[in-house]
Amino acid sequence: MAASEAITSATRSEARERAAEYLLKRHRFRLAETLPWLAAIAVYFIFPERMTFGSQVLVMAMFALSLDLILGYAGIVTLGHAAFFGVGAYTVGLAAARFGWSEPISGLFAAAIAAGIVGFITGWFLLRYRGLTLLMLTLATAILLQETGNLRSDISGGYDGLPGLMFKPLFGVFEYDLYGHTYYLYVLAVLVVVFFFVRTIVYSPFGQALTGIRENVRRMHAIGSPVHRRLVTVYTIAAAIAGIAGALFTQTNAYVTLTVFDFDNSAKVMVMLILGGTGRLYGAFVGAAVYMVLEDYFSKLSPTFWQFGIGLMLVLAVLFTPRGVLGVFENMGKYFSERKKS
Amino acid sequence: MPQFAIIAVSILFDGLAYAMFLFITSVGLSVTMGLMGFVNLAHGAFAMAGGYIVVTLTRTLGVGFVPSLVIAAVVVGAASVVFERGLYRRLYRSTDLEQVLLTIGLAFMAIATATYLYGPIPKSVPLPDWLQGDVNLGFRNFPSYRAFLIALGVVLIVVLWYAFERTNIGAKIRAAVDNRRMAESVGINVDRLFTLTFAVGSGLAALGGGLAIQLFGLSPSFAVLYLVLFLIVVAVGGLGSLKGTLLAALVLGVFDTAGKYLFSDAGGFFVYAVTVAVLLVKPAGFYGRE
Amino acid sequence: MSAALRVEGLNRAFGALPVTRDVNLTLERGARHALIGPNGAGKTTLVNLITGALKPNSGRVVLNGEDITNVSQAERARRGLACTFQINQLFRGLTVLENIGMCISERDGHANNMWRAVGSSRIVLDEALDHLDSLRLVDDALKLVRELPYGRQRLVEIAIALAQKPRVLLLDEPAAGVPSSESHLILDVVAALDPDIAVLIIEHDMDVVFRFAKEITVLVQGAVFTHGTPDEIMNNEQVKAVYLGQESHRGGRHG
């Protein structure tokens, strides 16, 4: 019996090693992860005349990324994420228009802090609720912020917006050119920093706890997890990032109006994320890129047709590909690797 | 009559009319959400469809206004059964998010279709003589249309109350809203019940849409613009509660009207502030179940 | 020396229906205590009151000498109270290893860390693997929980509770739903639990109860019917009557 015992314990420690290996390597960078970044740089060279549009795609990718943190990882469904985008956009806009503060990088920090504070306060109160109640409360919050801006449209510029904002050159050196080349690289650089920040969080024990809250919040309570504190923390971070996206929006457009708070905006970013696939980080990139490109093409053709198409895409996505475009790729990947085995 | 009393009466009257519209359109949403837990964001689209059917019937086919309302309600109610059986049924066990996305998708498709068929410009409907102008209710004149809306609302409230509280079917619905599993185990066919309530609710929404034309004009964006309002009424009133929907419609209707009268610019503010206030204190709404 | 867990005068009603009536219970360190009673007696409700998932209308819960009646469920877990649910509450979309690792992370505060990767803590990883080892789950470490047969999922449920290094462990019908061919796995684990842990187990299977328990509390309609050693309970005519009463009803309606 000693021999078989030895074999069993050998296979057991082999299994242990395999399990350890997997967990140790999971957060390492994979080659495929360079693809979106290479694509973004390639666009700079291949489509130099579409740089303004490119910047908008990157801004929306960041916005969708912030939503992925709370929706894809923590499982919080909200209808008012545009609130934080708007706070960030207006922080930068008002600073420039009313206080003449137009240094871009500090603007980003201010936007992140402002949006983060709003996220912290609203999150602390609202995240005690779920389901329809939370949907309504987050929606109402975004609309309330919008209405507040409307109340003092003398300050906010109302729905006509704050026009003609001017921003100082980056680091006092990089001038902005008419075609937005500098802007594109600027936004891309910020996106790189933000992305690695988010990626670190997602692969950390904290990120794992978020997944636990999403998968089974009852169990999380039972093992002693401070669920509400975790949710408020991630909500604040996501709000800050959405705020940075909003700030970049104002900086790259040199313009901002109250429509940034629209329910339309919250719905749009949710559609992008769902399209690309939630809980996968890169889903935000794929979704934003696909959505914006399609919208650009079709809404020029016919806005009505575009709206119909989006609706149809959503319906089909829910019925047939609930895990988004990346989900489809994953399924294909699984299919092929299984065929290889047999 | 002193100035403030005149304003108060106007606010109450208009607020009541608005509240009736909110109630009629939202009550179906409340009961279906309470019964099946299904988040139907296409509800606004059903209301919009009802409105456009009334437009076509009255303007193109010369049918009277009131008959058109009835026809629109019946047509949309019947069509909703097709949706429910063919599509919604598959998502009863899905997550909230999936239901939200699917029904928003349907709403977008409906809006696009309406824009294609009718164009984006708001439409109006020709009203019969007796609904135009004013009616004298003793101490002052009131717009006939709104008086009609209030009267119709009261009648529907009484009918629905009777159906809910005094009939067999109403009892079954209340039982199923209260505890679906137990209702099923005593032999109530909840599925069929749901199809029925869904059809009636959608028919009422269509009626509301038809009635809204004179109040707000009808354009394709109605489906999403007013959806927010319906959801708020349902959330504040409490899912599955007739009483709750009515109370919420009254509170929100009057507050919104008062806000618009007294602070014309800030008008919209109040509805959302009241919503947040109520939900923070009673997250399940006035008569909702925790 | 204070008891590991003490429940005093616990009362809870749902609307007009009382489900827990003036319950007193004490678990000493190392207790092996079974909670039995007919269906609907309120056993799971009592467990929920102890874990904090439910708040009592009146009464006290005392853990290691500290009054935790107003303490949250999560805080009670952090103070050494662990439970398994009647129906598995696991992270079905995650691997077995991650399920256990999550628990250890929460326990030692690791989960507050946003900067280092999950895999980088060798200590947490090794401890998780040790737990899996002791329950013979290492081969399943990288499988998703939802891919496991129900019996092995139940083992994971227990593994999670044990990974909390609890001082008091509440097991709600640990072998429920497990096919009889696999139930010995569960029962062996229960039998081999650390003698220092105070264990309260809800069970229907009398063989298991009499084999495992040193003390038994019988709950009927939310109140403590009687309490004693296995011998006393086995020979208690009234207890038999209560159960036989349940038996004779069983023909008429579903239990």
Describe the structure in brief.
The complex is a heterotrimer of chains A (342), B (290) and C (255). By secondary structure, chain A is an all-alpha fold. Chain A contains 15 helices and no strands.
CATH architecture of the domain at 5-91 and 165-250 in chain C: 3-Layer(aba) Sandwich
CATH superfamily of the domain at 5-91 and 165-250 in chain C: P-loop containing nucleotide triphosphate hydrolases
Mean pLDDT of chain B: 88
Strand order of the largest sheet of chain B: 1-2
Using DSSP, what is the number of strands of chain C? 10
- The total of beta strands of chain B comes to 2
Tell the overall outline of chain B: globular
**Category by helix and strand content of chain B:** mainly alpha
What would you report as the Rg of chain C, rounded to the nearest angstrom?
19 Å
Please work out how many helical segments of chain B DSSP would assign.
Answer: 11
Assembly classification: heterotrimer
Using only CA atoms, what is the Rg of chain B? 19 Å
Judged by helices, strands and strand pairing, the structural class of chain C is alpha/beta
Largest sheet of chain C at a glance? 6 strands, mixed
Please state how the strands of the largest beta sheet of chain C are arranged side by side: 6-7-8-3-9-10
What is the fold-level CATH name, i.e. the topology of the domain at 5-91 and 165-250 in chain C?
Rossmann fold
Q: DSSP strand (E) fraction of chain B?
A: under 5%
Percentage of residues in helical conformation of chain C: 25-40%
Unreliable segments of 5+ consecutive residues of chain B: none
Distance between the termini of chain C: 42 Å
Helix and strand arrangement:
The complex is a heterotrimer of chains A (342), B (290) and C (255).
Chain A: H1 2-25, H2 34-46, H3 51-73, H4 82-99, H5 104-126, H6 131-151, H7 153-156, H8 181-202, H9 205-215, H10 217-222, H11 227-253, H12 263-276, H13 282-301, H14 303-320, H15 324-341
Chain B: H1 3-36, H2 43-60, H3 65-86, H4 96-118, E1 134-136, E2 141-143, H5 144-166, H6 168-178, H7 180-185, H8 190-216, H9 222-237, H10 242-262, H11 269-281
Helix pairs in contact in B: 1-5, 1-6, 1-8, 1-9, 1-10, 2-3, 2-4, 2-8, 2-9, 3-8, 5-6, 6-8, 9-10, 10-11
Chain C: E1 5-14, E2 17-27, E3 32-36, H1 43-51, E4 58-63, E5 66-67, H2 73-78, E6 81-84, H3 96-107, H4 122-134, H5 150-163, E7 168-172, H6 183-191, E8 198-202, H7 206-212, E9 215-220, E10 223-228, H8 230-234, H9 237-250
Parallel strand pairs in C: 3-8, 3-9, 6-7, 7-8
Antiparallel strand pairs in C: 1-2, 1-4, 4-5, 9-10
Helix pairs in contact in C: 3-4, 3-5, 5-6
